Amino acid sequence: MKKSTLLFSGLIALFLTSCSTLQFTGTAIEQLTTPSTEVVDWENVNQWQHADINSENFPGMSVHKTYEELLQDKQGKAVVVAVIDTGIDITHEDLKESIWVNADEIPDNGIDDDKNGYIDDVNGWNFLGDSPGDQYELIRLLKKGTAFENRDLAIEKYAEMIQKDGVQHSLPLIEKNLVNNIYHYEKEVKQANQLGWNARTTGDEPDNFSQRFYGDGNVMPKSDDELHGTHVAGIIAATRNNDIGMDGIASTAEIMCLRAVPNEGDEYDKDVALSIRYAADNGAQIINMSFGKDFSPHSDKVREAIVYAASKGVLLVNAAGNDGVDIDSVYSYPSDRLNNEPEVSSNFITIGAIGPVKNSLMVAPFSNYGKENVDFFAPGAIIYAPVPSDKYEALSGTSMAAPAVSGVAAILLSYYPKLSPEAIRKALMASVVKIDYELQVGYDRRKITMGELSQTGGIVNGYNALLYVSDQQKNLRKL
Hints:
By secondary structure, the protein is of the alpha/beta class. The protein contains eleven helices and 13 strands. A hairpin with a 4-residue loop joins strand 11 and strand 12 (446-448).
């Protein structure tokens, strides 16, 4: 496993390659103005996110081009990327060399050696304890029996959920029954959708944010089907050029593992907020957040944690969500703003997903979008990456697009480690490859431009981003 401290033999190379005056030369990739008519090269789709969007068949992030033309023979600085997710298989053949190690903690001695409140947090922390899954937030809110914002919408969504479990009543009748007696269908639906089920095993009260030190240091998945976190971590940091599996994006990234997202159901706001704070307090420079939900009773606490992370110089990368909707008008959490009010900080970016085509179907149909709340897009459909027990799978979601951006951000910080989160965000946004032709969006494939789908109207590009930082580093250092 990598250590956060570098060996002396690498210090000279680090000084030469990561100083503030490091310069890269090349020609930036320009916007795409015409949809491609090429037939997709499906035989080579497994690493399409690394392809050069300009010269290859796929709308990738030009990662291989970045390493081959800009980073050859250059040694970057290690960058700690916290992954808040399900458990992560830290023993995976293609990931084990890229796991963050808390050098101040002695493994398995039952002592809080670094005195941060977490015992044996060698590779991160598990805020879920032994729980493999949990309820959805709307269920947790409904079973409390108290009024809350958008309760009618929660009942509507819950009715749809339990009808899919096999309840034979019509949706209007289910909703009427739920309003009169929220426990009406308690025994007719699967366990995760029963209001009486309580999966929390950590002994804390999820609404009590003063209870912080619960859970344990075991960040591994509880089963092989708990694969999401491993997949996300692999996209960022699977070992490059080892002839195993696939290549991660950032060769110097170290993954800090924070198990806070249940394999089924929704994450608790408390676990998310404390995960962000743990990462910020323990050396993370980037936090990847590939999760989301429609209801968030303590969204204020999560926003407070986002602001805290900004004060510690941490960039947060957030998945836009997979409902195929405009999140400028639909609630989606986590977010750095409430009801489209001003952002609480400048360290938070939200990512939509594209698929491996350079035509009008580029935007993945499941991807959320938003002129105000989505910053740009990244590869997120059919992404091949590690899953537990030394296996690999292709998965799709904005969950895959966010770590693609985290990986690119890690490359930038590896060579320009003094840049602020605001500077990295600006560089990523200013260097996108814009898409200047009509696209189809959502499951109804509505025709629209990418400029109407995000703030930048483009796709993240590692090559462009590194050139941009090189050229604008003097201005970026002021942010």
